[in-house]
């Protein structure tokens, strides 16, 4: 095999980075389950007509096709790898609705594939962690206030920079645009969604070309409103626009912000320029900034959807949010802002006096593993100094010396140099497994 060339956009972490990723995922799972979310995994492929029916995603979908497939293989030509976990989840709900209890709360941690240009924190294959709540026919709006609380508890428990969840409501924006006399509010939402990328002057010009300068100024004024409490309501009212859908969106967004302010002050911020590009969102929408990494965009996004999971008279509205796990970790790893206390799970290396005594070292290792302590046996019976240096290079904190002559079993902390009798010994709790830092 020739020397391989790395593939851009397909990250492969080093072992210590993978350990950090696993600990982050463990924390996410624990938090999701504390809130009553059940685990779920869906297939990697979906019919193309399902993947492409909502949002501008056609350029990003990878299709699935055998190398020797022919044009007659219709089934394969109609399959694509999922680009997010929301569309597969909506299909799953429709397919299994008769076996589910509603409201249904699920979390899902899987790889997704998206054919976009790789950049810092942006990949073609990456891991997402999603939570969603769906109900039959109607979904109370209080669930839109709960979603940020779950994410706040999950992310704020990690040793990472603080996060701020930016929230808006599509009803608020749509009602405002309709109150201005704009008949196609989704067009304006797509334009405003580009505000941070292209700047206010470009957004203003694009809106003004079709709807006039006054309406463009009003749209930008709305997008400029931001607050960490319900004071945004007065700012919106000062713009003098009225519409029933605007009133509904204001009330729902105020409830989200105030609920979060009571539960976790400073976590949520009403930011009325947030629109989200996917068409299926209908209510509250979320984006998340990581302190110090704001220039890289949102690391956690989602929103309310009412019509994504629907077939005929069966409608299952939902609300959810997705953490871009690979995106988050890639940014932190590159900045040396997240690591683990040691690069291997092993806490103890059992020394080896000779090959003839390997069985003794193996029994000690087995006894430690039975106590939940990750243990290795030295690879060869080298001089003790070399065995200790082997543990140092591996990042293993303790070396266990089996009894030798009159000397009982002893354990050495190779970081401090302290050596004690092994009888009754146990590693400190913080050393049993690698910890995030």
Short description:
Its EC number is 6.1.1.21. With 437 residues, the chain is an alpha+beta fold. The protein has helices spanning 15-34, 48-51, 74-77, 86-96, 142-156, 170-179, 185-192, 195-198, 200-211, 213-223, 232-237, 244-263, 325-334, 358-370, 384-394, 429-432, and strands spanning 38-39, 45-47, 79-81, 104-113, 125-134, 163-169, 226-227, 268-271, 284-290, 300-305, 310-311, 314-315, 318-324, 348-350, 375-377, 398-401, 410-413, 419-421.
Please give the number of β-strands.
18
Rounded to an integer, what's the Rg over CA atoms?
A: 27 Å
Distance between the termini: 38 Å
Report the β-strand fraction as a percent range.
15-25%
Give the overall pLDDT as a whole number. Answer: 92
H/I helix tally: 16
Helical content band: 25-40%
The coarse silhouette is: elongated
Protein name: Histidine--tRNA ligase
Family: Belongs to the class-II aminoacyl-tRNA synthetase family.
Subunit structure: Homodimer.
Pfam families: HGTP_anticodon, tRNA-synt_His
Written overview of the protein:
With 437 residues, the protein is α+β, with helices and mostly antiparallel strands. Helix content is 37%, strand content 19%. The protein has helices at residues 15-34, 48-51, 74-77, 86-96, 142-156, 170-179, 185-192, 195-198, 200-211, 213-223, 232-237, 244-263, 325-334, 358-370, 384-394, 429-432, and strands at residues 38-39, 45-47, 79-81, 104-113, 125-134, 163-169, 226-227, 268-271, 284-290, 300-305, 310-311, 314-315, 318-324, 348-350, 375-377, 398-401, 410-413, 419-421. The strands form 4 sheets. A 9-stranded mixed β-sheet has the order 1-4-5-13-10-9-6-8-7. A hairpin with a 5-residue loop joins β17 and β18. α6 (170-179) crosses α7 (185-192) and α6 runs antiparallel to α12. The longest helix has 20 residues, at 15-34. The two termini are 38 Å apart.
